[in-house]
Design goal:
Helix content: 25-40%
Mean pLDDT: 86
Distance between the termini: 29 Å
Largest sheet: 5 strands, parallel
Radius of gyration: 19 Å
Low-confidence stretches: 229-245
Oligomer: single chain
Order of helices and strands: HEEEHHEHEEHEEEHEEHEEH
Shape: globular
Structural class: alpha/beta
């Protein structure tokens, strides 16, 4: 999944390292290996000592998984486990990118179908011991994609931005997520690791803070989300909510906004 937003950022971080990098994409472009989860797996390279395979590829989206349970399970569960089995047999240490939605405890189960699918793969990987690590991420923001790109553009143009005050996120910048990937991959210790924002805040609170950090005059208007399909757990992800984990980073909302501004300056000169 090298073309995913976290995959792209992670690859940029390892440019210049004295290591060989293999990439997979859905179309096999730019010299990458063509790999589509749910289709026949291609020939994959055998790992050199210390080799790490990071699995970014998945069918993302809570609504998508809820609407097509069977189809997304073929990709996110069965195909993902088949890929992990093959990578393990080839000698790769696996880093599986999971989600805050997979958090499970005696008080709460995984959040929605997407969370259940991630949790099922996590349970499978636990059987590989130190050969596989799970990295759970909270909401990762990419300023170039999705609604964030439009919101930032509207802010730059002084337009009103509408944001839910009853829908929450525990945000990470893409740069935080890619740093976490390399840290967990470098340790190769197995188990569950996680990176999340320090606390959950509403989209309204976060976008208001981001607008201030951008130095734009755009008003952020609070709205209500009527269909509460899901929301993050109250507060950040912490060790008490899962059996075993490595708690690696917890940036504040202000630190995440500052990282987003730096990403924006670097990419557009804003």
């Amino acid at each position: 999944g090298a073309s995913s937003h976290i995959g792209v950022a992670t690859e940029k971080r390892i440019e210049g390292f004295a290591t060989e990098v293999f990439r997979t994409t859905r179309d096999g472009s730019s010299g990458s290996i063509k790999l589509v989860l749910g289709e026949q797996l291609p020939d994959l390279p055998t790992a050199e000592p210390g080799g790490v395979a990071v699995i970014f590829a998945a069918q993302h989206g809570h609504e998508v998984c809820q609407a097509d349970v069977e189809g997304t399970r073929r990709v996110n569960v069965h195909a993902a486990m088949e890929l992990c089995e093959k990578l393990s047999a080839l000698g790769w240490h696996i880093v599986f990118i999971s989600s805050e939605a997979a958090i499970s405890s005696e008080f709460s189960g995984p959040t929605g179908e997407y969370g259940r699918q991630k949790r099922e793969v996590e349970n499978y990987l636990s059987g590989l011991g130190d050969e596989a690590s799970v990295l759970r991420l909270s909401k990762v923001i990419d300023i170039k994609r999705g609604p964030w790109s439009k919101w930032i553009q509207d802010m730059k143009n002084g337009k009103e931005v509408f944001a839910f005050e009853n829908y929450y996120l525990s945000a990470l910048a893409v740069s935080h997520a890619s740093a976490a990937v390399l840290t967990v991959g470098g340790i190769r210790g197995g188990g569950i690791w996680q990176a999340s924002g320090l606390s959950s805040v509403s989209y309204f609170e976060f976008l208001t803070l981001l607008s201030k950090r951008l130095g734009t005059p755009s008003p952020v208007i609070a709205t209500q989300k009527s269909s509460m399909i899901r929301s993050v757990l109250d507060g950040s992800m912490d060790n008490s909510r899962i059996v075993s984990s490595g708690l690696w980073m917890q940036p504040t909302s202000a630190e995440v906004c500052d990282a987003l501004v730096q990403d924006l300056i670097f990419s557009t000169g804003f």
